[in-house]
Amino acid sequence: MDVPVFNINGESVGSMTIDEQSLGGTVCPVLIKQAYVRYHANLRQGSARTLTRAMVKGSTRKIYRQKGTGRARHGNKKPPQFRGGGHSFAKTRTREDFRLDMPRKMRRKANRNALLAKLVDNEVKIVDGLTFDTPKTKAFIDMLGKLGVDKSALVALSPDAEKSRNAMLSGRNIDGVALCRADQLTCFEMLNNRYLVIDKGDLEAWLSGPSSQTDKQAKINPMGRAAEGGA
Q1: Residue 90 to residue 199: CA distance in whole angstroms
Q2: Would you say 226 and 104 are in contact if contact means Cβ atoms under 8 Å apart?
Q3: What are residue 87's phi and psi, to 5 degrees?
């Protein structure tokens, strides 16, 4: 598959050949969805909390006398049936309760397959030299317009902080634009945005980096952060 390469002025400066088979050959929606749900679930903080009747602060005084009123017997005003009372089944779940796991090889295949889906739909804009001399939001917006980006876009920047600093400062406050590091590109970020904008060198590094190990070599002879347990 030949994908056009542009400069930051939107001019075509060549093409990049990408092997479809290395990305899975065909799009597998089931695999991509499984990985997407996993990434989404693992973002949950699990911080929702509600109070039981024992946690509610207030008086423990009996609200009315036990007998002679014709009403039900009650103690204080903290039971669930009273306004301001505690919950019968309070929420106490933690972040770990929502976490999902998925084999590393499957995650990488899903990420590469999501890129294939973007390539098939012509939603990947490869830029030769995605850098800016100075941080300037207008220049960043002009670049997206010249590339034909008319919907939400994920801009994958270089892992080198010094190299990507101006681009990050230029695009971080633009509505509909999300930024991420190119070496941390996942199907979750790609599918949350219509277009993917990435530097040619960063895409080549991602395709040949740890994400390319989708077989036993991922465990036997891992590359990069995978040696320390990274995805």
Answers
A1: 49
A2: yes
A3: -95, 145
**Which ranges in the chain are annotated with CATH 3.40.1370.10?**
2-44+101-228
**What pLDDT is stored for residue 47 in this prediction?**
87
The pTM assigned to this predicted structure is 0.80
Which residues does residue 124 pair with via DSSP β-bridges, in sequence order?
196
The sign of the dihedral angle between the CA atoms of 65, 66, 69, 71 is positive
SS3 state at 5: strand
74 has a pLDDT exceeding 60 = yes
Alpha-carbon distances of 197 from 98, 151, 166, 185, 215, rounded to whole Å = 31, 12, 16, 11, 28
> Strand, coil or helix: what is 126?
strand
Name the nearest CA neighbour of 23 among 200, 220, 182, 214.
Answer: 214
Which of 58, 62, 88, 90 is CA-nearest to residue 76?
62
**For residues 167-179, average pLDDT:** 95
**According to the model, what pLDDT value does residue 13 have?**
93
Q: Kindly state the tokens that stand for 113.
A: 């397959």
Closest by Cα among 180, 178, 182, 179 to 209: 182
CATH fold for domain 2-44+101-228: Ribosomal Protein L4; Chain: A; (3.40.1370)
> Helix or strand or coil: residue 223?
coil
Mean per-residue pLDDT, 26-50: 94
